[in-house]
């Protein structure tokens, strides 16, 4: 099992969460909530209003999201879903645990130094330069105050 940190449309209550609970695509078990140890820019970009974490450590905000334990099948699905490695790149990042729900997991989370875990995160280093000038968010909600509604793939 691998740990994945999701910060956008794959979170609970967001438009693509359905994929995280679709066991035909693999297993994804919610473990808890966290935030990036380092700051990153989280922008909403493109004509489909997609959330992107730009891989520019030290700039932006500590990004809030959810931690999942996923099997190899789900990891492969997520790579494909996220257009890895062209649109997003899957990299290991340090995630501070904010709230832990994993079974027997409190000990697991505490075992990590200061509640910090390494998780795979889909961020991008391949983006148009003008995206750096977009507003930065610390948390993503597809129906947030930003007014930039996410366009589902089925509707594109």
From TrEMBL:
<feature type="domain" description="Gamma-glutamylcyclotransferase AIG2-like">
    <location>
        <begin position="4"/>
        <end position="122"/>
    </location>
</feature>
<feature type="active site" description="Proton acceptor">
    <location>
        <position position="82"/>
    </location>
</feature>
<dbReference type="GO" id="GO:0061929">
    <property type="term" value="F:gamma-glutamylaminecyclotransferase activity"/>
</dbReference>
<dbReference type="InterPro" id="IPR039126">
    <property type="entry name" value="GGACT"/>
</dbReference>
<dbReference type="GO" id="GO:0016740">
    <property type="term" value="F:transferase activity"/>
</dbReference>
<protein>
    <recommendedName>
        <fullName>Gamma-glutamylaminecyclotransferase</fullName>
        <ecNumber>4.3.2.8</ecNumber>
    </recommendedName>
</protein>
<dbReference type="GO" id="GO:0042219">
    <property type="term" value="P:modified amino acid catabolic process"/>
</dbReference>
<comment type="similarity">
    <text>Belongs to the gamma-glutamylcyclotransferase family.</text>
</comment>
<dbReference type="InterPro" id="IPR036568">
    <property type="entry name" value="GGCT-like_sf"/>
</dbReference>
<keyword id="KW-0808">Transferase</keyword>
<dbReference type="InterPro" id="IPR013024">
    <property type="entry name" value="GGCT-like"/>
</dbReference>
<dbReference type="InterPro" id="IPR009288">
    <property type="entry name" value="AIG2-like_dom"/>
</dbReference>
<dbReference type="GO" id="GO:0005829">
    <property type="term" value="C:cytosol"/>
</dbReference>
<keyword id="KW-0456">Lyase</keyword>
<dbReference type="Pfam" id="PF06094">
    <property type="entry name" value="GGACT"/>
</dbReference>
<comment type="function">
    <text>Catalyzes the formation of 5-oxo-L-proline from L-gamma-glutamyl-L-epsilon-lysine.</text>
</comment>
